[in-house]
Amino acid sequence: MPISEQISTRVAQLGSGVFARNDQRKAVYRRRLNTSPDLPPLLDLSLGSTDLQPPPVALEAIRAALDEPASASYCLHGATLPFREAVAAWARRRFSVAVDPEREVLLLVGSQEGTAHLPLAVLNPGDAALLLDPCYPSHRGGLQLASAETVLLPLDPERGWRPDYNHLTDSQWDALRLMVLGFPHNPTATTGEQAWLDAAMAHAIDHDIVLAHDNPYLDLALDGEAPALLRHPDWRRCGIEFFSFSKGWCLGGYRIAFAIGAEWLITALRQLKGIVDFNQSLALQAGAIAALEQAPQWPERLRGAYRERRDRMAAALRSQGWVVPHASMALYHWLPLPAAARGHGLDSERFCAALLEATGVCLTPGNGFGPGGEGWQRLALVHPSEELEAGAARMGAWLRQL
After folding, report:
1. Which CATH architecture has domain 56-294?
2. The model's pTM
């Protein structure tokens, strides 16, 4: 094989990724639009990239800081202290927990960066780690890059997606070195319960396992109270929790997030990050600080819009013959394949590809979230209700043709 064509085994195992495959399909559809303007416009419901806007105070803080020369400089860990102090103050307000900004907080370039890098920081090749199935793709990708052995914990819709920890034997628990959970849960749009996380922490303590909890949707539960690792009294023993500005403050493209966790885990992740990346610009950090301090209720303001979109889109889809399970968190519907698609032998990938080609509506195939996602697709509520309802009508008309 020519040297120019060699890639590592771990990269080959990663595959293309569901969002990359969708991106290619969308590019093809856009080219078709250029030559066939009568086609319906692209309606991208495949990414949780909202059309709702960030708090103005965050954008104003970013603009003001952009003129400071330091904002264009590399940012090392020491310069992130004001950000980490703002995070610690937020944690005190949000969870009534005292957090050390020096030892227990770390700035991230998006929470996805943190969850993908953590396995490299805490696992050796061949170590076993537990993932929910389905789960967010970067959770699996991080384990693959760390050459870890993946153990899947299937989530059953008949159980309301509640994790069944009895699915694993004692010997399997003893072999684990890391668990990666995330509630509210992407992609199933399930808020989850604190008891689910508390039970996981009990297993983590009993079996000496790191518990990582991905929590970017903390403030976007539409039903119930979102669970949080920081609510467990023993989180400092072996826990780390990832939070993001992408969803609650609509700053997804700005790629800024943070982790709060046990000192030894934050130290390990910080050491790895010190080798592979720098931190976000001080200007972006200024915007995040403003969001935490001056717009703490912004996520709550979003919930009304997402609740309306959830309810109107569910009604629109059901009127077109879809089965629509209840979504208890914002941003998504997790939809089983329609009967017409199953009758034509379509799996989730081929269904979403055909749907986009025929209607211009792009969903995310469920197989991209793991084996347990096959037979499902994720729909993101990232456009106004009227556009969502029009998309439902487009999809319904195509399904009737099937």
Report:
1. 3-Layer(aba) Sandwich (3.40)
2. 0.95
